């Protein structure tokens, strides 16, 4: 089966188990989504949300945030970890938007083709392919496919990407094959699968809706069964 058909099949199986995902924290204003996504790097959703709420409480309007000192921003987002790097990324993105567009907006990305829009976002310091794709998918409805560490692990076990693929390579190689309209549900349901079932250690193959189509799950199952019959 080719990659496009495999991804369609995987999305259907995940949808049958988990349903179509509801609203996501990343929907909404693109600049706020960019900030939220920068805050989500290397931390849990809970700490990301705490850091974002703290930042919005301290700086309710974007122009006030843009005018803040780095130490003030760092203080507001400390709970999310990597505060210095994240504060720098947020502030430099805002400075660049104001300088190039006269205001704090990313609306100009709407009319750009996906590769150009992604190239713009990844040219901002501290913004990688994953962050750019989250903004492009959730705020603009573009056909980007963000890959996080959960999706990367699941994709490797399913042999959808090579074992050495990193987040960016996996995202760019899977993206053209994700069926139209499935980017968001597949992204969210693969993350859910990675958290609940295809965990880093002790994946629950027997309870996995993808077991019939997963080389690693099938191999592990066969190994266990061979051990039992020794
Ligand atoms: S069968 Fe196992 S390895 Fe494959 S996706 Fe499911 S939990 Fe992960």
According to DSSP, the number of beta strands is 0
Ligands and ions found: iron/sulfur cluster
CATH topology tier name of the largest domain: Endonuclease III, domain 1
Please give the share of residues in helix: 55-70%
Topology as H/E string? HHHHHHHHHHHH
Query: Which outline best applies?
Result: elongated
Structural class: mainly alpha
CATH architecture of the largest domain: Orthogonal Bundle
Largest sheet: none
Span between termini:
34 Å
The tally of structural domains comes to 2
Output the number of helix runs.
12
Mean pLDDT: 94
What value does the Rg take, in angstroms?
19 Å
Percent of residues in beta strands:
under 5%
The CATH H-level superfamily of the largest domain is Hypothetical protein, domain 2
CATH class annotation of the largest domain: Mainly Alpha
Which consecutive residue ranges, at least 5 long each, have pLDDT under 50?
A: none
Describe this structure in words.
By secondary structure, this protein is mostly helical. The protein has two domains: 3-15 and 146-225, Endonuclease Iii, domain 2 (Orthogonal Bundle), CATH 1.10.1670.10; 30-138, Endonuclease III, domain 1 (Orthogonal Bundle), CATH 1.10.340.30. 59% of the residues lie in helices and 0% in strands. The protein is built from twelve helices and no strands. The protein has helices at residues 3-18, 30-39, 45-58, 62-66, 70-77, 83-101, 114-122, 129-138, 149-157, 167-174, 183-196, 215-228. Helix 2 packs across helix 3 and helix 9 packs across helix 11 (183-196). The longest helix has 19 residues, at 83-101. The protein is elongated, with a radius of gyration of 19 Å. The two termini are 34 Å apart.
């Amino acid at each position: 089966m080719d990659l496009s058909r495999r991804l369609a099949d995987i999305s259907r199986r995940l949808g049958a188990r988990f349903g179509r995902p509801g609203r996501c924290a990343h929907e909404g204003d693109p600049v706020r989504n960019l900030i939220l996504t920068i805050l989500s790097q290397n931390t849990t959703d809970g700490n990301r949300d705490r850091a974002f709420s703290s930042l919005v409480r301290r700086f309710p309007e974007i122009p006030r945030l843009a005018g803040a000192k780095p130490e003030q921003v760092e203080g507001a987002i400390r709970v999310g970890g990597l505060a210095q790097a994240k504060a720098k990324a947020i502030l430099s993105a805002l400075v660049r938007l104001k300088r190039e567009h006269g205001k704090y907006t990313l609306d100009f990305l709407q009319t750009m083709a996906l590769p150009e829009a992604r190239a713009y976002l990844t040219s901002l310091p501290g913004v990688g392919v994953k962050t750019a794709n989250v903004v492009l998918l959730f705020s603009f409805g573009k056909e980007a496919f963000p890959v996080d560490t959960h999706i990367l692990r699941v994709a490797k076990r399913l042999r959808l990407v090579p074992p050495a693929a990193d987040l960016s390579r996996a995202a760019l190689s899977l993206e053209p094959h994700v069926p139209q309209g499935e980017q968001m549900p597949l992204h969210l349901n693969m993350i859910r699968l990675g958290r609940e079932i295809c965990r880093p250690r002790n994946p629950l193959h027997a309870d996995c809706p993808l077991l019939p189509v997963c080389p690693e799950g099938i191999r592990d199952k066969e190994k266990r069964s061979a051990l039992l019959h020794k």
